[in-house]
């Protein structure tokens, strides 16, 4: 990788305090010798390649994860999260730059974050990406094919390993987000490159995940581009080991649903419309959630300026979150 034919040992002891310093020294040397281009994207691709040489193969990572899972799901995720940092997929030095604080208001202690770990685009890297040939492989940054893929100037290196999961009888993968917005920020992605869509299957998959990992929550971004930004071309969820203020917020208005006597429901005290469903029967939870979703998708209230669609473009969807 370094394209060196020989090696001269340095005089005296060499001490490095962290992985970032080691990688910077190696990449600086590669840049100086013309082995690596001098821009942020090329540097990231190169140090990821260096770590790829040292990182265990996928089957070794998965074996370790599943062995620890037999002890407890949390031991498995604790190890995998640490592993994702130790292999520099999650870059500790960049995450440390993020700004985080809490704000006390009538809705509770809100978490405020400014994410500074996602690198700014280098103009030289943007220029190089425009010149690079377009490719349909991998189709996006979430595809399972990214595992082991070195990346290119217009596609980030996502060589990190993924843990296979079965959700609602389908094939999914667990990985972590390189831009940790909260503790153990994970991504659960569909094995197939298929568009995001909130449906009855979504609720079953979310609840299946919380059975596998009771200490994690899992949710989905909205599936409409007008509602919020996400990679809508690839079905995926986001979760983690964290308690948000919305989870602590109390139910302001209890609601009951005919035919669902065992499910407690209510409108949460929150600045946006939040409906909380609580129950011990996942089938009943999924059935009621689907019923609410269907009703909301077709709901129009012109007096309140709520329209189910305009010119065939749907407006109403939800952001579902599941936790135990």
User: How many H/I helical runs?
Assistant: 9
Number of strands: 13
Radius of gyration: 23 Å
Beta-strand residue percentage: 15-25%
Quaternary status: single chain
Major β-sheet profile: 6 strands, antiparallel
Large-scale geometry: elongated
Average pLDDT for all residues: 90
> Kindly, what is the distance between the CA atoms of the first and last residues, rounded to a whole number of angstroms?
46 Å
Succession of helices and strands: HHHHHEEHEEEHEEHEEEHEEE
Strand order of the largest sheet: 3-4-5-7-6-13
- What percentage of residues falls in helices of 4 or more residues? 25-40%
The SS-based structural class is alpha+beta
SSE blueprint and pairings:
Blueprint lengths: L18 H14 L7 H15 L3 H14 L1 H14 L5 H4 L3 E7 L2 E7 L8 H9 L31 E5 L2 E7 L9 E5 L9 H13 L4 E3 L16 E5 L4 H4 L2 E5 L8 E5 L6 E4 L3 H16 L11 E2 L2 E2 L6 E2 L2
Antiparallel strand pairs: 1-2, 3-4, 4-5, 5-7, 6-7, 6-13, 8-9, 9-10, 11-12
Short description:
This protein is an alpha+beta fold and 324 residues long.
Describe the structure.
With 324 residues, the chain is an alpha+beta fold. Helices cover 32% and strands 18% of the residues. The chain has nine helices and 13 strands. It has helices at residues 19-32, 40-54, 58-71, 73-86, 92-95, 123-131, 200-212, 245-248, 282-297; strands at 99-105, 108-114, 163-167, 170-176, 186-190, 217-219, 236-240, 251-255, 264-268, 275-278, 309-310, 313-314, 321-322. The strands form four sheets. It has a six-stranded antiparallel sheet with strand order 3-4-5-7-6-13. Helix 3 packs antiparallel against helix 4 (73-86) and helix 7 (200-212) runs antiparallel to helix 9. The longest helix has 16 residues, at 282-297. It is elongated, with a radius of gyration of 23 Å. 22% of the residues are buried. The mean pLDDT is 90.
